[in-house]
Amino acid sequence: MNYLYVLLILAFICISSMWIVFEKAGKNGWATIVPFYNIIVFLEIIGKPWWWLFLMCIPYLNLIWIIWAANLFVKRFGDNTWSTFYFLFLPFIYLPLLAFDKNAVYKIMLPQKVIEKKNNNAFIWVVSIIFIIIILTLPFHYLPDHLLVFPKENMTFSNTFIFKSDVDRIIERYNKASFFERNAMNNEPIVRKLKEKGIIIDKNSANSDEDNN
Q1: Nearest to residue 88, comparing CAs of 55, 60, 65?
Q2: What CA–CA distance (Å, rounded) separates 29 from 19?
Q3: CA 46/CA 109 separation, integer angstroms
Q4: Facing residues of 84 across strands?
Q5: Helix (H, G, I), strand (E, B) or coil at 151
Q6: How far is CA 5 from CA 1, 15, 152, 199, in A?
Q7: Would you tell me the crossing angle of helices 121-142 and 111-119 to the nearest 10 degrees?
Q8: d(CA 188, CA 190)
């Protein structure tokens, strides 16, 4: 429960700071709290069309979109490329600093700046690819073994992992289920996989094996 309070405080800091940043860019601060519209306003700030919104719906490509958009955003307020990392990974620190920095002024992209922007494109692509590799490999290398059970089957775009808390809920539901409910649950891919790994033991099957012996 304490973690929830911390997350709420950090979310409040980010939203209130972004409210001020939007106003610095000449936009309505309240747009920060309006879903989807806040992204459209964000795109207006970085000088991109509204249909860029759909790029964030494409798996993997949306990671590049996030990095690229964040890079354009920080540069509009005079920060360098490395500030992109602070914006992405430490927004609860970066956004308040940006919001209350009197020297941070919103800048419209001038024609001569376009050349500089093109020179940075290669760097952004490299950083984006590295970021995607880190995101895709992080669960395998850094998550505790007792949290990661197995990837869900039949995932089209990416592996979604079953964590111990989810497994506990499935086991609890399975144990409390009636005979007919268990038969229905046995058709679920997750339950079948858990039974294959011996995480879920079918009591009916176990009893029948004992009777046969």
Answers
A1: 65
A2: 4
A3: 9
A4: none
A5: strand
A6: 7, 15, 31, 34
A7: 40
A8: 6
For the question of whether the overall pTM of this predicted structure is more than 0.90, the answer is no
pLDDT, one tens digit per residue, over 75-104 is: 888 887 788 888 888 889 999 999 888 888
User: What whole-number distance in Å separates Cα of residue 65 and Cα of residue 55?
Assistant: 7
- Quick one: pLDDT at residue 18? 92
CA 82 – CA 46 distance, rounded (Å): 17
Residue 60 — left, alpha, or beta (φ > 0 → left; ψ -120 to 50 → alpha)?
Answer: left
Amino acid at 158: S
Reported as a single tens digit per residue, the pLDDT across 19-41 is: 999 998 888 889 999 888 988 89
* Position 69 pLDDT exceeds 70: yes
Three-class SS state of 161? strand
Q: How many residues does the chain have?
A: 213
Q: How many CB atoms lie within 10 A of CB 185?
A: 17
Residues 6+ apart with CB under 8 A from 147: 163, 164
- Tell me the angle at which helices 91-100 and 2-24 cross, rounded to the nearest 10 degrees: 30
Separation between Cα atoms, residue 45 and residue 90, nearest integer Å: 20
List C-alpha distances in Å: 184 to 174, 177, 192.
10, 10, 11
